[in-house]
Structure formats: structure tokens, C-alpha cells
Amino acid sequence: MHTKISGKHIDIGDALRTHVEDRLNEAAFKYFDRPVDAAVVFSRDGHGYKCDSSVHLPTGLTAKAQGSHGEIYAAFEASAERIEKQLRRHKRRLKDHHQRRENPIEAIEAQAYVLARHEDEAEETGAGDHGAEAEGANGAENGLQPVIVAEMKTDIQTLSVGEAVLQMELAHAPFLMFKNDANGRLNIVFQRDDGNIGWVDPAIVADN
Fold this sequence. Notes:
Elements: E1 3-7, H1 14-28, E2 37-45, E3 48-56, E4 62-69, H2 72-89, H3 91-100, E5 107-115, H4 118-125, H5 129-138, H6 141-144, E6 148-159, H7 161-170, E7 175-180, E8 186-191, E9 197-200
Parallel strand pairs: 1-2, 6-7
Antiparallel strand pairs: 2-3, 3-4, 5-6, 7-8, 8-9
Helix pairs in contact: 1-2
Pfam families: Ribosom_S30AE_C, Ribosomal_S30AE
Coiled coil: 73-100
Subcellular location: Cytoplasm
């Protein structure tokens, strides 16, 4: 299994790299009989560490998990345990999905952006209440114009609705946008507050 290990402003020693590779290999090969790709990123989290792990499965789906701890090895272990728990929980569904799907999962590349929060903009400009008054005087244009603080590439996969729900759960994401392989439209599935899954399909409704 190819594992990419990196750190944000953190030096990753050979001992940690070896430990990460061995641990993820052990977890992955419990549930899959052929190699998968993985990525692990370490970063600072206050006085401790944060570890973001992702394992790309042979089914085409990706399991993701995050762990935090004051010690870097423990932060990784927390992340690895969550990855393994997801694989164990969804083992049957993943294997069923892999057996049903005849073709690899396709994906289209899209541009993703991170927008500044309104409160952050106010703090940077030193606005506060006076800033709100000024905004009102100048019109709502300033408050509605998004400020892009970061941009990145992301993939939108072509999935069935069931696969999209599984991918969302594996990634611990609140929602997932995907291309519905049944109709070719962009759809969204999302976690509802009542514990159920919401599904949005912008079907074209003919005018009466």
C-alpha cells in the first residue's frame, strides 16, 4: 500500500513514518485483499497534535478520520482506530458495493473555495457595530460579496444514491455532493438532525 505522510510545519521522522505505514497496512488488509492508497497529514493543534488520515479503498470510496492528542503518536492512533472502526462497520456494504459495480467510479474535477466568515472580516477591518452601520449606508454589497481565503481542487464522483450515503458516512462528512449515475444530475445527500439521511435531486419539473 502506498502511503503519503506529511506534516504542516512539523518534521516527520523515519520512526513515525514506519509506524504509520505498518499500522495502516495492518488495518487495511484486515478487510481488503489488495493494496489501497493512504494519506496522513500531521499538524499542530494548540499545544498538541492533530492527525488527518484518509484511506482510498479498492471500491473507489475513501474512508477519512481525524484524531487529536497531546502526543503525536497518540493523535495518529486515534485517527487510525476511527478508520478501522469505519472499515469494520461497513465491511459488508463495501464488499457488496465492490461486487455490484462493474466499472470504476468516475469523477469530475471541480474548484472548491474557502470563504471568510463575516465575523472574521469585521475583526480584520476593526468594524464591529460601526461597520454594520457603514455597511447599511453603503448598501448590502460589502456584506454579500464573499471574500475567498483559499481555493483547492476537489472531485465530484459519479455514484448511486446508496454509494453516496456510504461515502458520506466513511468520510464523516455532514453532506456530500455527487453526480447521480441514474440520471446524470448533481445531487446532495446530507445528515439530518433526526438521524435520517436527506437527499436532494433537482429534477426538472415540466411547467403545467
